[in-house]
Each structure stands twice: as C-alpha cells, then as structure tokens.
Amino acid sequence: MRAVQVMSYGAADVLRINEVARPAPGAGEVLISVEASSVNGHDVIVRAGGLKMISGRRFPIGAGLDFAGVVAATGADVEGYRAGDRVWGMVHPRQRHITAGAAEYVAVPADRIAPAPEGISPVEAASLVVAGSTALIALRDSVRLTSGERVLVRGAAGGVGTAAVQLADAMGGRVTALARHRHARLLGDLGADEVLDYGSTTSERIGPFDVIVDTVGSELHCYRSRLAKGGRMVTVGLSGSALAAIAASSVYGARRIRTFSANPETAVLRDMAGHVASGALRPVVDSVYPLAEIAAAHQAFERGGVLGKHVVAVTA
Fold first, then answer.
1. String of b and e for 39-48 (b: at least 16 CB within 10 Å)?
2. pTM score, two decimals?
3. For residue 67, with 0-12 CB atoms within 10 Å meaning exposed, 13-18 middle and 19 or more buried, which class applies?
4. Can you say whether the dihedral through the CA atoms of 160, 163, 166, 172 is positive or negative?
5. Minimal CA–CA distance to 280: which of 211, 190, 152, 215?
6. Is the peptide bond before 208 cis (omega within 30 degrees of 0)?
7. 10-residue mean pLDDT series, the chain (316 residues)
8. Residue (of 256, 316, 259) closest to 291 by Cα position
9. What's the pLDDT at 262?
10. Domains by residue range for the chain, with CATH
11. Where are the beta strands (DSSP E) in the chain?
C-alpha cells in the first residue's frame, strides 16, 4: 500500500509516499481502508520535529492524525463493526506510528473510531474529526459554555475555529468571531453574531466575554484580561510562549488559561456525529489535495489564511 511517511525532521519536502506492507489488525483492532485525511497542526509539528519526545529519532514516522474511510477487516474480539462500515477516527496523538492516517490503510483500536455521519462525503468527514472534536471538548468540557454567554472565538476561520463558532451558536452562545475580514460572510452564516477583523481589532477594544476559545496561541495574557467576572478561557494553539502564559495564569484560579490535548475516542466521535446529523455542525473544506501532493497541503497549512480545513484525498 501507499503511505505518507516522514523520512527526517524538517520542512514539507521530508514527506515521502512509500510502498509499505499493509498492516493486519490485531486483537481489538480494526483495519480501515482510508479515503481521506486532513492536515492538522499536530501533523506539521511532528514533521518539523517539535514532538521528538513522542515521535523519537527513528525513521520513518507515519503522517496523518485523522481519517475517514471504510472498515476492511476486524481483528479478534472486535464487536459492532464489519467490513464495509463507513467510519471516522484518528490514531493516538501521543504514540509513535510507522504508518498513520495518511495512508491507504491504517489499523487502529476499535475505541478510536465511530460510525461516520451520514450525508457527508469522506473528505468532509475527515475535515471534522480533529477540528470538530477539539471544539466540542473545548466548549462542552473545558469551559462548559452555557446558553446566553458571550463567546469570543479567536482564529475563527480555521478548522477548529469554524467548528467552535457553529457549536457555540448551537449551545446558545452569543458568538463573536475574530478572523480575516474576507471570511466575515461565511462566519456569519455559520452562526457568528459579530465578526471582527483581527487585522484592525486589538484585544483592548473588545469584550468582556464569558468564554474565550483561542486557536492562535499568542498574546494570551492580553485576551485573558478581557474575561468577565466568572469568565473562562481555553487555548488549543500551543507553543513555547503559550505554555509559559498558561503556567503564569494559574494565579487567576478559575479565570486562568486552560488547555488540553484532544484525543477523542468513540463517545466523542459519536456525539460529534449527532451534531452533524442535527445540522448544528457542518464541514468547512478550504481545499482538497491528492495524496501525491500532501507536501503542498502541509505548505498551504503553514502559510495560513485558511478557511476551514485542508484535506488529502487518499483515494481518487
């Protein structure tokens, strides 16, 4: 089978499409025939060598965190799935993989997949796995958004941002989206009550907010100061400076800056599928690349300015 692998740490040109043996599902595992995978910040960080404590220094390393596809086979002790079932899921983000989501086949534990939502394509499904689950966990579990609260989504045009705008609106939040001006119309269609141009809007001029969802990871202390009494903030845009700001914010107690590593298992994926089925969450795909052009997809991600997700179509 074809699989995208990182052959050394560095820029996008270290990615290679190699012919490797197709994995066999072990006990408790499911073999997925992958149709699509998206490009996530985690993929880029691993490729660049930013997670060496997890990925190590032995190559090759599998690329691709998430996937949507069809069950090809099941291992022993797997119940509830059979060949031909349409599913979505992700490999474990804190484990090293020789092959991962950006491959023609991937074998994963059955608790890392769930039935894919009906009515959307594999490309659309792949665009939501990491982005949608991250937004859902952030709003529902981390900051516990309640109806009527004022919500700021910073970096609202990205994959997590577009999902967070939709889910915050569905939860009854009064949503302010901070993004590029050219994305204002779509963000309004997704549920934002107000869209502010990040290029001309400073943190001092907005707020206060009951909830802030940050996907950028910079100037966190400035945005934390825009929380109302009882407000909560979460960031998923992790970097060295972000981690320092998170640690320093602990003195503010409940108004500190929170973070987490999204690692959705079956229950979260099922919940997210329910939001898709209800119409509360819909995919936003910026561009689709064939597997042979995954390096270009990584480069596009790193350039920024995205509206939604870059997705890699594994099967044409």
1. bbbbbbebbb
2. 0.95
3. buried
4. negative
5. 190
6. yes
7. 97 98 97 98 93 89 97 97 98 94 98 97 98 97 98 97 98 98 96 96 94 95 96 87 87 93 92 97 98 98 95 90
8. 316
9. 85
10. 2-126+264-313 (3.90.180.10), 129-258 (3.40.50.720)
11. 2-6, 15-19, 29-38, 61-62, 66-74, 86-90, 105-109, 113-115, 150-154, 174-179, 194-197, 209-214, 227-235, 257-258, 285-290, 309-313
CA 124 to CA 178: how far, in whole Å? 24
The first and second tokens of residue 22, run together, are 């197709």
Instruction: Return the residue matching tokens 């769930």.
Output: 114
Supply the angle between the helices 266-278 and 122-136 in degrees, to the nearest 10. 110
* CA nearest to 14, candidates 235, 310, 298: 298
Distance separating alpha carbons of residues 84 and 285, to the nearest angstrom: 25
Residue 127 structure tokens: 């665009």
